[in-house]
Amino acid sequence: MQSKTETGKHERHSYRAKLLIDAWRLFHDNLIGRIGVCLLIVFGLMALLSYIPPHVDPMYHPMTGVDPEISYASPPSTRHWLGTDNIGRDILSQLLTGARVAFLVGISSAFISIVIGTLIGIVAAYWGKMLDGLLMRFADMVMVMPSLLVILLLSVLFGQLSIWTIVILIALFRWPAVARVIRSQTLSLKQRPFIDMARVAGASHLRIIFRHILPNVLPMALLYMTFRITSAIIVEAALSFLGFGDPNTVSWGMMLQWVWKTGHMFQAPYWLLPPGLCISFMTLSFYMMGRAMEEVLDPRLRRVRNAKHAAA
Amino acid sequence: MNLKRMIFKRSIEILVVFFIILTGLFVLFHLAPGDPVSMMVDLTMTPEDVDRLVQQLGLDRPLWTQYLLYLKNFFRGNFGTSFHYGRPVIEIISERLPATILLFTTATILAAMAGVWCGKLIAWHKGGPLDATVTIFSLLCSTLFLPWIALLSIWFFAFRVGWFPLSGMITPEIWVLPNLGFWAKATDILHHLLLPLLTLCIVNTGAYLLIMRSSMLETIKEDYIITARAKGLTEKQVRNHHAAPNAALPVITSVGLSLAFSVNGGALTETVFSWPGIGRELIFAVSNSDYPLAMASFMFIALVVLVANLIVDILYAYLDPRIRY
Amino acid sequence: MLAKRRKETFNHLIFVYMLFLILGCGPGNSDENMLRIGLMEEPRTTNIWLASDTNSRKVLSLIYQPLYTYDPDTLELVPWLAAAMPQFDPETISYTVALRHAKWSDGTPVTADDVVFTVDLIRRFKVPRYFSQWQFVEKTVAVDDTTVRFFLSEPRAIFLTKTLVNYIVPKSQWAPIAQQAENTKKPLVALLNAKISSPMGSGPYVIEQWRQGAFLHLINNPHFFGKNLVISNRRLGPYADSILFKIYSTADVAILALKRNAVDYFWWPIQPGYIDGLRGNENTKVYLSDRSALYYMGFNVRHAPFSDPAIRRAVSFLIDKEFIIERVLQGFAAPMDSIVPSENTFWHADGLPRYGRGMTRSDRIKAAYRLLSEGGYTWDRPPVNDAGSVVSPSRIILPDGQPMADFAILTPPADYDPARATCGVIIQEWLKDLGLPASARPMSFGALLQRIKDRHDFETFILGYGQLSLDPDYLRNFFHSANDRPGGWNMSGYRNPVFDRLADESGKAMDPSRRRYLVNDMQRIIMADVPYIPLYNPVAIEAVNTNRFAHWEQMIDGIGNIWSICRVRPQTRQAARDIDN
């Protein structure tokens, strides 16, 4: 392990760069991480490709385009590679658009929940005492609540949820785990000499938090973001599946709802399979990335790994 | 003694949390657009019909009074009348709750047991191709989208192969005929239970397996395992009687932590399988704006989650000799 | 030791598993005479006054009976609990009805007292939905045990066609409940929430067992008055000893059950997508029946921009009803050109404006463009360019010089009714062709009704009446200015003194031909002003399993009616085939 004392700016930079390279190597070595990244690239491509079909022909518009000749659910053909839904819309272009929506929902709501979680975690650990106790109790409470059902209940406030409301609602119920981890990290950071030094040097609280604590907890926050992405995608899909999604958005959960509610479950396996596969594999890919990153970031796990390597 | 104090402390906490949830629900349903009457109203009612209902439901009282009344009614076990069914909510809940508890507890316990058992074996073969395959496979299982896999298993096992009934909890014909006894009914329920159970287990087992596996790997390095080996016990004995019981503790914790997640999954499973449970009723109530039923269903689900958390904590403390609160 | 015990447990488990496989797999060899009917959702209640959902009403319609009902062929009124057609006395504006010798399910006779009690109950409690139909009945008198006389405060056309087809409830069961309810602070709510676990009726069946969440079991009422009686040339049964209502929450499962002989009839409209599969199956038969339904797009005509009839007519031109029917309803619907469905032959008016029927898309856009430009609407870039071809327009500018603000087409959510939600999206795209900034906005049904019916906070919406009564009185209700108030039926806020006068007159017209003349005029006014654009009237698609029962009676709205229930007969498989051929 490298020495952790910092002697100069230059050295610190190179240290960080080395850490990064180190991390990447570890990550690259990791089978699970590799699979995750590959899958993710596929989904990224899908999301990018989703802009193409509507330009080829208006009938490939995922929401409003219908095939002029087909007005029923039809199996895959040369014209519709994955078939059409019950009113003649192209399933492939819906699937591609779904990837875009999943990324949008996953990343934006994970980002918001990370911001909330990190802030609460740092604040709780930094000021401690009453505030800490209160915030953590609150986090516990939110954590034990089944978020999907809570969001369902909250949907009565809105009549119909829009995709952005869903994003924010998911974020609001997904921060506690992040807050807990960041809090414990901050607590251990608080014991480090450089924080004391900064305080003695007269740095303000804000400066200490943003300059000294935040950069150090950021990797952990990023790690948790990948896990939040998976849960955000799942919650959105489940909401849409139950009929509480944004009706103007073509998401994978929405597609599943259409199959289910229009009664094509037994008749159209070509329509039932793709959206579910996509949801499952996308969450899998983020989850795998997260696990791989966890091993890189968490020295305790790395030790296990190294020990395993040594033993092998 | 200490355990008792821990239980006491946690119970108080649960009460406070529950009170907060109660209040939250009250506020939520008063902010909700559409007075509760809008559900009872349909296109064929006249405005006079509607007015009479609003007046009779007592919705014109001050909010504070309504809140106190709500709390009082709650502690008396009076959750109001469902708009949809026109029956006391408590009646509906008490019909649905057993079905949920049957499915939910069976699934959780089975999944945890299967996870522990498989994880134990896999950890013993660590590093091999079997380990890698099972690890990736269980990762895949634990991220499967539950409603989809439920639909898929209905499509395959119930529709294609025809081993299981398509949905529901009982076959009415069996229950209507007077000459069939208890066992026929019990097996009928069991037959309906299997497929949802299988679905829930597929998704939940993977996660528990992975936790058990890594926990086993940690435990193996502990001193007492080395001692056990040194005593000349067989590998199997070491694994089953020394390593596994201790390694299973994190699984219990994670059962507690993932309860909320499992409840979501339970509600989805119930909906897809038309299992007449409380989660399905909640989803149904929300989409019908049946506020009293939605509120009460949620309260009971929250209560089940909180109590189950407490039980898991107690179990953990009881099983792990190192932990004393 | 431990291992041995475990092994034993394991063996036990295997044994139990085998046991239930053997027992559970048998398709519950139910008794031959049990009619199994599938429902989509569980009935809400067995309290007739609360029952507003179709499923409760289906079950209760087999228990409670009305004085008169509709003939399945002619749709004319036929005496049911009544012995003959009512006698009208113009002097006192009263109707006299003689009752049959019918009995309640406990064996006591149905008397004039029960009828008087029912009417009084509705009027005293002002029971929602029923009160407005009995409001004008000033007095109900039991002349003798089997004769009732209704005194009306004024002549009302709907008395015969709507009021007299309401159910009669037994005094012996309801009087104590009503009394108890009246002593509470909230009598109406107490009445609606009263628990009636076994409603006593005079119909062919009574409830035997209701297992909430699973099934409802009805058995034969031995005292049913219609047994072996011939009404409307039909000999009534019922022939099935019992009825088992099974609850299927998804149509998929129910359809499969039909094909696999697990249910005899699925009492729920089927999506067109299932038809081919059902027709191809030798066990099932599909019934297509006309419906009396109205699915329409409505405008808020209280304020701009849709207060201008020109823009509403332009929208009528843009909406391609045939496309909607072809695409969204897979052809199983009829386009509507009036508020009164054309299937309702007596009341439907002919020769109404048909707004672009049969036109191509670009012709429709041009026609609408012409209408709007004449009405003073302008565009920076018009939808039709100087060369006369259709282009993508800029936002429309209203006659007052303001560009039109974004507005929503409110629809029910897709899981409530996929057809209407999809229509919203399609119409949104059509309106954009003319620079009308529309966006479809599906929302939950309760919130939707509240915005439209109570708060009048909307511009346009798509709604429907799944079961429009045969009597066209709704025309008056929908568009009379007196009903333009929060919660009122006139959701559009349409106000037209000429229409009001015609409507008032038609409500009092006792002579059918005179009333028909007035109703035709009313339809003409509405279709010229189009506060509602009628879209489609779906076909009722239903399916039965032919292996065990036959002789379903088809009438408007399908085969799920009291006639069918009284007429279906158990069949051997061979006999069922013969009937089919």
From TrEMBL, chain A:
<keyword id="KW-1003">Cell membrane</keyword>
<feature type="transmembrane region" description="Helical">
    <location>
        <begin position="31"/>
        <end position="52"/>
    </location>
</feature>
<keyword id="KW-1133">Transmembrane helix</keyword>
<dbReference type="InterPro" id="IPR050366">
    <property type="entry name" value="BP-dependent_transpt_permease"/>
</dbReference>
<feature type="transmembrane region" description="Helical">
    <location>
        <begin position="270"/>
        <end position="290"/>
    </location>
</feature>
<feature type="transmembrane region" description="Helical">
    <location>
        <begin position="101"/>
        <end position="126"/>
    </location>
</feature>
<dbReference type="Pfam" id="PF00528">
    <property type="entry name" value="BPD_transp_1"/>
</dbReference>
<dbReference type="GO" id="GO:0005886">
    <property type="term" value="C:plasma membrane"/>
</dbReference>
<dbReference type="InterPro" id="IPR000515">
    <property type="entry name" value="MetI-like"/>
</dbReference>
<keyword id="KW-0812">Transmembrane</keyword>
<keyword id="KW-0472">Membrane</keyword>
<feature type="domain" description="ABC transmembrane type-1">
    <location>
        <begin position="99"/>
        <end position="290"/>
    </location>
</feature>
<protein>
    <submittedName>
        <fullName>ABC transporter permease</fullName>
    </submittedName>
</protein>
<dbReference type="GO" id="GO:0055085">
    <property type="term" value="P:transmembrane transport"/>
</dbReference>
<keyword id="KW-0813">Transport</keyword>
<comment type="similarity">
    <text>Belongs to the binding-protein-dependent transport system permease family.</text>
</comment>
<dbReference type="InterPro" id="IPR035906">
    <property type="entry name" value="MetI-like_sf"/>
</dbReference>
